[in-house]
Amino acid sequence: MSPGVKYTLGRLGLFLAVALVLWPVPLNLFVKLMLAVIISAALAFFLLRGLRDQMAEQLSDNVTRRRTEKEKLRSALAGDDQAAGTTPAADTTPAAGTASTDEAPAGKRSQDGRDD
């Protein structure tokens, strides 16, 4: 089970435990629930420190992994094939949509309607 799920279940468990302890107290239900939220948050700060640290470590690892994948993708898209870990292709044909050097760019025409 992931550390995030464990921590969330721990927080919910603490909230329910505190709410059950406050149940017989003669207060408005809304006030009991608000007190349960505040008290369980304070208890979670101390009691669930290990789970919180595990979750933070997992999040940090995910951020680091995503950054490296993002950099690899950017370098591959920029044409930096060696950084992406691939070998360059031996394809010498021009890419689709590119004009060769002896063709005039589309839209550039002389006054008589011919391509320059």
Structural notes for this entry:
The protein is mainly alpha-helical. The chain has four helices and no strands. Helix 1 (3-22) packs across helix 2 (29-47) and helix 1 runs antiparallel to helix 3. The chain is elongated and about 85 Å long.
Point out poorly predicted stretches.
none
What order do the helices and strands follow?
Answer: HHHH
* Structural class by sheet pairing and helices: mainly alpha
Q: Tell me, what's the shape?
A: elongated
Annotation, overall tally of beta strands: 0
What is the arithmetic mean of pLDDT?
A: 82
Beginning-to-end CA distance, first to last residue = 68 Å
Helix content: 55-70%
- What oligomeric state do the depicted chains represent? single chain
Report the radius of gyration as a whole number of Å.
31 Å
Q: With helices defined by DSSP (H or I, 4 residues minimum), what is the helix count?
A: 4
**Strand composition percent:** under 5%
Largest sheet: none
Give a topology summary.
Layout: H1 3-22, H2 29-47, H3 49-77, H4 81-84
Short overview:
By secondary structure, this protein is mainly alpha-helical. It is 62% helix and 0% strand.
List keywords for this structure.
elongated; 116 residues; mainly alpha; 0% strand; 62% helix
